[in-house]
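Why do we care about 3D structure at all? Because function follows from shape, and shape follows, mostly, from sequence. That is the central idea of this module. The next example makes it concrete: a single protein chain, its amino acid sequence, and then its structure expressed as tokens.
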Amino acid sequence: MTTSAQTIANRRSVPIFKRAPSTLIRYAALIVLGIIYAFPFIWMVSLSLKPDTELNQIPPQLIPSVLTWANYPNALFQPMIYFPTYFLNTIEYVVLAVLGETIVSAMVGYSFARIPFKGSSLLFGLVLSTMMLPTQVTLIPQYLVFRDLGWLDSLKPLIIPAWFGGAFYIFLFRQFFMTIPREIDDAALIDGANHFDILWRIMVPLSVPVMVTAIALSVVGRWNDFFGPLIYVNSVSKTVLAVALTFFNIPGEPSPENLLMAASVVTVVPVILIFLFLQDYFVQGVTLTGLKEG
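And the structure:
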């Protein structure tokens, strides 16, 4: 065990109450910040379990007097707002879009990192410059293109462009691949491997942290996407969860806040679980992409 590893192990073995006051203050500050950031979600769960009579109660209470679990089936299985259909639409959108975005971004990132060609730096700069272009600027031209292709009122405008990669994920993969020694490429090329073999048999297995990071960020972004489905999908039966939540807000009628919050909890929980399970890979992937400058 190295000296640094021994130091970390010794620090972890010391009980919290015996540590330095500055450490205790940091722990206390982190706990307070954690509660502050978690409170909106806690309040959302509380509202989702309240009966109708307690929604406008003054002063409001965090814990409902009666846990109304029936709010969840009432919210998710309404005849006019049938969430299982929207959930399947969202799964289809997220899986296909994330799959294409991750695969293509890895291929493009590998090309920029490991295959030297004339003008690569300029082209990479152009790819990064697309990140500074607001979506609203290209919205109308894209809408007209998709209309002429007959893709409106479907998930095609949301899925197919993802198969051209994403600038941010191309950057992540490129930076990570540049941290891998080039001697590995040379040895593989001598053994008769081509660049596709090197990418999928060597680079991808070595890039699990950045791969998981790209997948996690892409899943969260697609799962929470509201603007794209709102613009391109018109049929209620083809919409996704983020847009379906707006169906509870009917103009001129009282909004069932407990049902809306119940549907929101079900919509948000998958994203939270993804982050909790993949947070170690996420931190490692983002950290490693900055070890070597391009």
